[in-house]
Amino acid sequence: MQITDVSAVPLSDPVPEEKRHRTDLGTKVKSDAVLVFVDTDEGVRGLGASLGTPPVVEAVVEHELAPLLAGEDPMDTERCWEKLYAGSRWKPSLDSGYSQPREDRRGVTLEAIAGVDIALWDLKAKALGLPLYKLLGGARDSIRAYASGGWAPGEAAADELAGYVEQGFDAVKMRVVGEDGFSVDRTAARVEAARGGVGDGVDLMVDAHGSLDVSTAIRLAKRLERYDVSWFEEPVSPDDHPGLAEVRRATEIPIATGEREFTRFDFRSLLDRGAVDVVQPDVARAGGITESRRIAAMASARGLRVAPHAWGSGVLFAASMHLALATPNCHILEVSRAHMPMLFDLFEEEFDVRDGVVRPPDRPGLGFTLRDDYAERFKYVEGPEYVF
Ligand SMILES: [Mg+2]
């Protein structure tokens, strides 16, 4: 089997005004994604998805990556990944056995590579007639889920999160900076209310989106310890791994991070510094299924767990689900509670999320079929995803 074409389709999912929420990131007005298709001479087609600025990702996929894969066997996912990551130096890289990466080896380029890699794995699993998680070695047949939300201001956070518990989740995550802005006192009050709202038997996580400095993060963590927080996500900037390690040493709350890291090399920096307890690669950013498995193995060797970041499109959620099912040291999967039709209504088939558990389909590949009207329904809209 040979690859004949690699193409990309930018998509957007506007958020209606009444469904928008505001955090430190600003107000989200839409979600973007880029679908990636890999076609073959045998008619089998792989579906992947990427994050990143859609027209830029589209250009990278079609002008930079597609020519590298023309004529390759899509079953050779390791070879394809090395070619994409090394670019023009793929031959010396593969001959020597060590990566000599392309100059633009992070950011949008890596997001584009990740999208292509997911499509290759979907294709490979379809060609073999196996659900992707089975091809990857299948650690389990279902995975515990957590409800990811918690934007409501003040005490309303309690009702919002209790609503997710009523939907069957026994783990929930809330944002540190709610719609009413940030202060240590305000956040501590919201988390106290949230703990009261969900009760003692529920795992409660908090996420600061990397918006705090080290001393504020430590001050907040100390205040939150009494509410039995299961993890404190991205307390400080992803560019401050030493600062993150400092926060981790100062609190008994486990530290989670990784959604904005690229490649196993970024994760190595986190692990070497002892900066993280729960490793959160985003499969569409960290480098696809291929690279995310390496990251999970590295975390496993340190006795650390993986909880994939899963946001944006249905393709990304499906890929994250298969990764989670096949990764022994994964314990939980993110399920967005935001208004996201591009995550939940992109496919003809529904995701099976019941009683706080995600179950995979038994169909080959990622196991999902794009709806006929996806291109019109999620037509790309120019402009940023967040406005301040
Ligand atoms: Mg997060």
Bound molecules: magnesium ion
Named at the architecture level, the CATH assignment of the largest domain is Alpha-Beta Barrel
Portion in helices: 25-40%
* Poorly predicted residue ranges: none
According to DSSP, the number of beta strands is 16
What does this structure look like?
With about 400 residues, this protein is of the alpha/beta class. The strands form 3 sheets. Strands 6, 7, 8, 9, 10, 11, 12, 13, 14 and 15 form a 10-stranded mixed beta sheet that branches. A 3-stranded antiparallel beta sheet has the order 1-4-5. A 3-stranded antiparallel beta sheet has the order 2-3-16, with no helix packed on it. It has helices at about 55-70, 75-85, 90-95, 105-130, 130-135, 155-165, 185-200, 215-225, 240-250, 265-270, 285, 290-300, 315-325, 340-345, 375; strands at about 5-15, 20-25, 25-30, 30-40, 45-50, 145-150, 170-175, 205, 230-235, 255, 280, 305, 335, 350-355, 355-360, 385. The protein contains 15 helices and 16 strands. The termini are far apart. Strand 4 and strand 5 (about 45-50) form a beta hairpin. Helix 2 (about 75-85) crosses helix 3 (about 90-95) and helix 8 runs parallel beside helix 9 (about 240-250). It folds into 2 domains: about 5-130, Enolase-like, domain 1, CATH 3.30.390; about 135-375, TIM Barrel, CATH 3.20.20.120. The longest helix is centred in the N-terminal third of the chain and has 22 residues, at about 105-130. Magnesium ion binds near residues 207, 233 and 234.
